[in-house]
Amino acid sequence: MRGQPDDGTVAAAGAAKAAGATGGGPGTGAADGDGTRVVRAGLPPEEPYAPPLPGPVFAAHYHLPGDPHGAPYAYGRDANPTWTALERAIGELEAPGQEVHTLAFASGMGAISAVLLSQLAPGDVAVLPADGYNLLVPVRERLTGLGVEVRTAPTAGDAQRELLDGARLLWIESPSNPGLDVCDIRRLTAEAHARGALVAVDNTLATPLGQRPLALGADFAVASGTKALTGHGDVLLGYVVCRDPERAAQVRGWRKTVGAIPGPMEAWLAHRSLATLELRTRQQAAGALAVAEALRARPEVTGVRHPGLPEDPAHPVAVRQMRRFGCVVSCTLPDRAFAERFLAALRLVDDATSFGGVRTTAERRGRWGGDAVPEGFVRISVGIEDPADLVADVGRALDAAAGG
Ligand SMILES: *Cc1c(COP(=O)(O)O)cnc(C)c1O
């Protein structure tokens, strides 16, 4: 597996640089800044007259003479050069300078279920967040049906640590979506490892520039690339990054068996989007903080949450493990009708689900019925517009909603 072009292995940055040097390639070092690393992440060594980022490779099969064992590319469900480049890029961002294995998936759920279902067997105990992404609920039910004992506790206050005895796997989502609670990943991971449990962290909200689960001790960083990673609202994607080659092979085997693979076009669009990840997340974080502060100043708005707000209950832990605080802000408006009037009155903010895109979106989460949130709870995903314009729009819409 290792060393084959399809295994998404990221060589240590030094080695990448060396490879780059011999090939005249564009490798960056782990010490380079985020903005420098994203524009070169995963690019192949420079070659005269070749494009810096090769276009998508559309192939169901590849020319395959003779013995197929060890062939880097044989069939399209197993490997694709466009995924390989994207996987290298994501691995470089999630674990700079480390040798890791990265696998791209068709969606975040494809990646999440690949880890859970490839690592858990009947009789195992899994500890999941009670307040994680809403599709964890059906996944939980499926695991239970397969004979896995599932225990759940809230993300806040590191409550999952009470449930770790006998666990095989701890699943962390921090910050949680949509509640924006944060747990101490280092502490929970150390306690889980002391009991022999594996740890996976859903890193969707933070992005690899905001948080590095593997550096905090986790075995797997897992995420939906549909959100802030790709950021344009035009691609579904997921990924898994892990250090251990055997676990990577199990996840790879799962991907191949269920066929939860990204299309080459999606993988290429995702890779192309990574070049602006630093610009996007920086602007989003600035806008999110400005919007959160503006919401906090309004008496009719309660429960404003954003991990970057100094007075947020998640802030003390967030500053210790996050490098950026993300684009999501949540708050509670007086009731459902108020929230609906607010959303309708916004001029620059689309009423839409998902988050992490370049355009600001907001939605009343209660409309889905899946999250344990008040009827007036609104999740806002701050885009890359000018923060002052967003603050003005939110203020205007609150006035309009209050006016009835
Ligand atoms: C959206 C999301 C997912 C699922 O990702 P898809 O790409 O939609 O399958 C998983 N976890 C979190 C935290 C998410 O926000």
From the 3D structure, determine the CATH topology of the largest domain: Aspartate Aminotransferase, domain 2
Globally, the shape reads globular
Regarding quaternary structure, how should these chains be classified? single chain
Strand content: 5-15%
Distance between the first and last residues' Cα: 63 Å
Instruction: List ligands, each type once.
Output: pyridoxal-5'-phosphate
The number of helical runs is 12
What Rg is obtained from the alpha carbons, in whole angstroms? 21 Å
**CATH homologous superfamily label of the largest domain:** Type I PLP-dependent aspartate aminotransferase-like (Major domain)
Strand order of the largest sheet: 1-7-6-5-4-2-3
The tally of domains stands at 2
By helix and strand content, what is the structural category? alpha/beta
Please tell me about this protein's structure:
By secondary structure, this protein is an alpha/beta fold. The chain has two domains: 12-275, Type I PLP-dependent aspartate aminotransferase-like (Major domain) (Aspartate Aminotransferase, domain 2), CATH 3.40.640; 278-402, Aspartate Aminotransferase, domain 1 (Alpha-Beta Complex). It is built from twelve helices and twelve strands. The chain has helices at residues 13-23, 34-40, 81-94, 108-119, 136-145, 185-194, 245-258, 264-274, 277-296, 315-321, 336-345, 387-402, and strands spanning 101-105, 125-129, 149-153, 169-173, 198-202, 220-224, 238-242, 302-305, 328-332, 350-351, 361-364, 377-381. It has a seven-stranded mixed beta sheet, sandwiched between helices. The protein has a five-stranded mixed beta sheet with strand order 8-9-12-11-10, with helices on one face. Strand 4 (169-173), helix 6 and strand 5 (198-202) form a beta-alpha-beta unit. The longest helix is centred in the C-terminal third of the chain and has 20 residues, at 277-296. The radius of gyration is 21 Å and the shape is globular. Residues 1-25 have low confidence and may be disordered. Bound molecules: pyridoxal-5'-phosphate (PLP). Pyridoxal-5'-phosphate binds next to helix 4.
